[in-house]
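Appendix B, record 7
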Amino acid sequence: MRVQRWLAAAIVALVGVSAPVVAQEGPQPGVVSVRYFECGLGELGDAVRLVNEEWRPIAQQLIDEGMLLDYGILTHSWGDEWNLLDYYVAETTQAFHTAWAELVRRVQAQDPDGNMFEEFAEYCPRHKDNIYSVVAPAP
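Structure tokens (predicted):
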């Protein structure tokens, strides 16, 4: 529990670090969605490779189109079992859900047989999701 609180604070700080840049271009980010994955230590590199090759380019498209404000991947070598995270920054919860639906649609369009999802699930069999509201971004 303590690690999760620290992680939430770190993600909010990450958003806060980028907030001055975002603030110059538009509204402050309002939500951060985080997906925590438990990946086998021997498979973590393969999971990151797969995300970078298949998932990240589509997330970048959504950033370029203004549907998301940011996206990133975090890993750790020390901590609890949730050793791979990805995060999405959006202006509102509704904007996140809209972007998420579009991201999943595009991933499924490029991988209609679901092979990428199956391969990823072999590397990272457990996950959980959270959506955090940014209540105190950096000035």
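Remarks on this record: Confidence is low (pLDDT under 50) at residues 1-24. Residues 44 and 63 are 25 Å apart (CA to CA).
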